[in-house]
Amino acid sequence: MKITLVAACALVDADGRVLVAQRPEGKALAGLWEFPGGKVEPGERPEATLIRELDEELGITVKEACLAPLTFASHGYETFHLLMPLWICRRWEGTIQRKEHQALQWLHPARLRDIPMPPADEPLIPALIDLLGP
């Protein structure tokens, strides 16, 4: 089975809320809420993936020093296995804008359980609650 590496980021605001983005129509798992990020390209480091994806998806600039690894998810889908490390980021430059997603919302970590997320994202929630509180 093919293993797909996807880097994800929990952007955290001053109130301890985490940004989630709604997957757009026409993509797999459309309408579900996820952490921003994307597939790691061949030869690309996951941190570089996040810097690129956060710029493309949200229009913000993130420096590698502001990315802190937190945890990871390992999930088997029907046609591939997803390995997804999650980084935390509390500092970025620019104003977050919706460029590729249907919607964006800021939620306290415990509220992440109240929204539909892809199966691979759900196991990341307890680590965020442990770090940030409910």
TrEMBL record:
Residues 2-130 form the Nudix hydrolase domain. Pfam families: NUDIX_4. It is an enzyme of class 3 (hydrolase). Keywords: DNA damage, DNA repair, DNA replication, Hydrolase, Magnesium, Metal-binding, Mutator protein. One of its GO terms (molecular function) is 8-oxo-7,8-dihydroguanosine triphosphate pyrophosphatase activity. Signal peptide: none annotated. PROSITE patterns: NUDIX (PS51462), NUDIX_BOX (PS00893). It comes from the Bacteria. Its EC number is 3.6.1.55. It catalyses: 8-oxo-dGTP + H2O = 8-oxo-dGMP + diphosphate + H(+); 8-oxo-GTP + H2O = 8-oxo-GMP + diphosphate + H(+). GO terms for biological process: DNA repair; DNA replication. Its cofactor is Mg(2+). Belongs to the Nudix hydrolase family. This is 8-oxo-dGTP diphosphatase. The lineage of its organism: Bacteria, Pseudomonadati, Pseudomonadota, Alphaproteobacteria, Hyphomicrobiales.
